[in-house]
Design goal:
There is one protein chain. It is built from nine helices and nine strands. With 325 residues, it is an alpha/beta fold. The protein has a single domain, classed as 3-Layer(aba) Sandwich (Rossmann fold). The two termini are 32 Å apart. InterPro entries: P-loop_NTPase, PanK, PRK/URK. Keywords: ATP-binding, Coenzyme A biosynthesis, Cytoplasm, Kinase, Nucleotide-binding, Transferase. Pfam families: PRK. This is Pantothenate kinase.
Length: 325
């Protein structure tokens, strides 16, 4: 199924699109005087396997986004203070600004989230920025197997959504030392008893496949929260289906020579396979699981994002679509 690119998806001839679309060069100019605070070596350390990113990409795309977010965070803090004055409320704990990062497997969500975290943490007032992935909120493999969901791992029903919603609610309430479960890509499972602690950050980045997925609306109007209800801003990383397919298979082949060779790896059995057989397995995983999830659950949430970053075949971001206020 061919997917429209961002420009055709968000910019209609009738002028009713909720987005304003920028070319790469137009967006890069919005950096203004935002300083480059990362080095080329640091950028290399932040990138994921098979997701190349350069200092030029950071300067053209992520510095302007960092500048925009700095303005949005300041405006949100002002709105919060105004609300507190209206309610004649005592001074409450600060409310963290939460940014969601969504998109397909292999599109580069992790790289984007880490680069944003590094840039935002180096603002002049050095805010405290934390990053959490929704992988930790997946149901454990034993539970997925019991429910017959191992072939749908990463689909909305494979997550403990209640636990994720409670986590985000506690963060938004300004609670101290909120715990989130940890996931290991090496063993391909949630790690029992392992947690990360989020302690009242200024900004929290939440990265995951389906973070923009809405819940099914109840007929009786009962309030059912979405994960995205807790987001102040969201980024969807987009790419053509054919590119995502190619990136996924190439990453799988590269992992055969790296992480898959670890004796503890869940995918250790794939490390020694002939390349042709490994390609067949990667193609099967893509078509049977990841492509289906992309088409059924991920792409339909694209239009719910505050910002859409559209990648070209080389992972270079070509257009940026910003939702109008």
């Amino acid at each position: 199924m061919d997917q429209p690119n961002v420009v055709s998806a968000v910019e209609d001839d009738d002028g009713l699109s909720p987005y304003r679309v920028f070319s790469r060069d137009e967006w890069a100019k919005l950096r203004a005087d935002a300083p480059m605070t990362l080095t080329a070596d640091e950028v290399v350390q932040l990138q994921s396997l098979n997701d190349p990113i350069s200092l030029d990409e950071v300067a053209a795309i992520y510095l302007p986004l960092s500048r925009l977010l700095s303005l949005y965070v300041a405006a949100t803090q002002g709105l919060f203070k105004a609300t507190q004055r209206f309610l004649l409320a005592e001074k409450d704990a600060k409310v963290p600004y939460i940014i969601g990062v969504a998109g397909s497997v292999a599109v580069g969500k992790s790289t984007t989230a880490r680069v944003l975290k590094a840039l935002l943490a180096r603002w002049p007032n050095t805010p405290k920025v934390d990053l959490v992935t929704t992988d930790g909120f997946l149901l454990p493999n034993a539970e997925l197997t019991r429910l017959g969901l191992m072939e749908r791992k990463g689909f909305p029903e494979s997550y403990d959504t209640g636990k994720l919603l409670h986590f985000l609610a506690d963060i938004k309430a300004g609670k101290r030392n909120v715990k989130a479960p940890l996931y290991s890509h090496l063993v391909y499972d949630v790690v029992p008893g392992e947690e990360t602690t989020v302690d009242r950050p200024d900004i929290l980045i939440v990265e995951g496949l389906n973070v923009l997925q809405p819940a099914r609306m109840p007929k009786d109007g009962t309030a059912i929260p979405f994960v995205s209800d807790f987001f102040d801003f969201s980024v969807y990383i987009d790419a053509d289906e054919a590119d995502l397919h190619r990136w996924y298979v190439n990453r799988f082949l590269r992992l055969r020579h790296t992480a898959f060779r670890d004796p503890l790896s869940y995918f250790r059995r794939y490390a020694e396979l002939p390349e042709a057989e490994a390609i067949n397995i990667a193609e099967g995983l893509w078509n049977r699981i990841n492509l289906l999830n992309l088409q059924e659950n991920i792409v339909p949430t694209r239009q719910r994002a505050s910002l859409i970053l559209k990648k070209g075949a080389s992972h270079r971001i070509e257009t940026v679509a910003l939702r109008r206020l």
